[in-house]
Amino acid sequence: PVCILFCRFCPSNWPDVARSSITVLTLPHLFFFPPSRIWDSRELQVAHRFPVKQYIQTYCDVSQDGRYCISSSNGFGGEGCEATLWDLRQTRSRVREYKGHFQTTASCVFLPKGLGLTPVVATSSHDCMVKVWNQDSGGM
After folding, report:
1. How many Å apart are CA 131 and CA 89, to the nearest integer?
2. Which of 69, 48, 72 is nearest to 59 (CA)?
3. How far apart are CA 85 and CA 31, in angstroms?
4. ∠ at Cα 111 (110, 112), nearest 5°?
5. What is the CATH number of domain 4-134?
6. Cα angle vertex 100, ends 80, 138, to 5°?
7. Domain boundaries, the chain
8. Could you count the other beta carbons within 10 Å of the beta carbon of residue 16?
9. pLDDT tens digits, 21-79
10. Main-chain phi, psi angles of 106, to 5 degrees
11. Mean pLDDT of the chain
């Protein structure tokens, strides 16, 4: 079972929630312990099961198009402390890891596309650093 420590949701159809006829319910931010899962609230089934990692996963975010998920992990001394990009489509595989923090990576988000054409993600860590990464290349 998943142990969710914190959950914030923003249903796009709040009046429907009150009538218990939920059609869309978004859970954009979760803190969780392994074995970690993303649930499809429409089907009430597991949509993605994260492979077990050495360090506890601390946060996740899903891209606007629903194709990718990014999760961050616990760690210390540069071990662990990474964010991982997952493909949520057919393969549901790990695409890339973003390494460079020295303490627990506490948060990770997909940043909205601005003037640049390159998709970017941001991570924050207990090492008091915020890093912005090129989603495709993994570079900063």
Report:
1. 26
2. 72
3. 16
4. 120
5. 2.130.10.10
6. 105
7. 4-134
8. 14
9. 434 444 444 444 445 666 666 777 777 676 777 788 888 888 888 888 899 999 999 89
10. -80, -25
11. 75
